[in-house]
């Protein structure tokens, strides 16, 4: 198995341990195409682009890869309930902070990577699914971006 698969699994496992009441979303590349029951409080990890870091170490390839971590929660408030809306917004931001804090402490995903670094987030988004399957449900979503450096052994 390649190191990218190991790192991806380690990141998913780490987020699941930090946010145990969240469910893993099956499709991280089209979030709203997942069942609504998962979107009520879910997370996903998408594998992004990689860059060869150009280190010259025999038979090792060093890569810096982007991972996108999506958090999504059902907006359970009515349109005019400002305090509930603010509370939900703060809850998803606190969950995002918990992930950032954990990965700042555990920067090597249990030894599976060289480092993982928080880069940015998308800002809180309000999502209303479209199409035939769409219900009246609305969601808050946040996309966190991390860069992860790891090495692949080319002799395996």
Q: Per CATH, what is the topology?
A: STM4215-like
Low-confidence stretches: none
Round the mean pLDDT to the nearest integer and report it. Answer: 91
Number of domains in the coordinates? 1
Number of strands: 6
As a percent range, the share of strand residues is 25-35%
Explained architecture:
The chain is of the alpha+beta class. It has one domain: STM4215-like. The protein is built from 3 helices and 6 strands. It has helices at residues 3-18, 36-39, 82-105, and strands at residues 23-24, 41-52, 60-74, 115-121, 125-127, 139-153. Strands 1, 2, 3, 4, 5 and 6 form a 6-stranded mixed sheet that branches. Helix 2 links the parallel strand 1 and strand 2. It starts with a helix and ends with a strand. The model has no long low-confidence stretch (mean pLDDT 91).
Key traits:
alpha+beta
Summarize the structure.
This protein has 156 residues and is α+β, with helices and mostly antiparallel strands. It has helices at 3-18, 36-39, 82-105; strands at residues 23-24, 41-52, 60-74, 115-121, 125-127, 139-153.
SSE blueprint and pairings:
Layout: H1 3-18, E1 23-24, H2 36-39, E2 41-52, E3 60-74, H3 82-105, E4 115-121, E5 125-127, E6 139-153
Parallel strand pairs: 1-2
Antiparallel strand pairs: 2-3, 3-6, 4-6, 5-6
């Amino acid at each position: 198995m390649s190191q990218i698969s190991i790192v991806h699994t380690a990141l998913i496992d780490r987020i699941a341990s930090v946010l145990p009441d969240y469910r893993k979303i099956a499709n991280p590349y089209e979030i709203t195409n997942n069942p609504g029951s998962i979107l009520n409080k879910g997370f996903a990890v998408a594998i992004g682009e990689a860059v060869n870091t150009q280190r010259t170490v025999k038979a090792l390839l060093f890569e810096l890869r982007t991972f996108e971590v999506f958090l999504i929660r059902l907006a359970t408030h009515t349109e005019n309930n400002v305090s509930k809306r603010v509370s939900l917004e703060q809850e998803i931001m606190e969950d995002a902070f918990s992930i950032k804090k954990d990965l700042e402490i555990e920067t090597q995903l249990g030894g599976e990577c060289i480092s993982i670094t928080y880069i940015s987030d998308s800002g809180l988004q309000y999502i209303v699914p479209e199409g035939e399957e769409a219900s009246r449900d609305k969601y808050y979503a946040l996309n966190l971006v991390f860069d992860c450096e790891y090495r692949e052994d080319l002799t395996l």
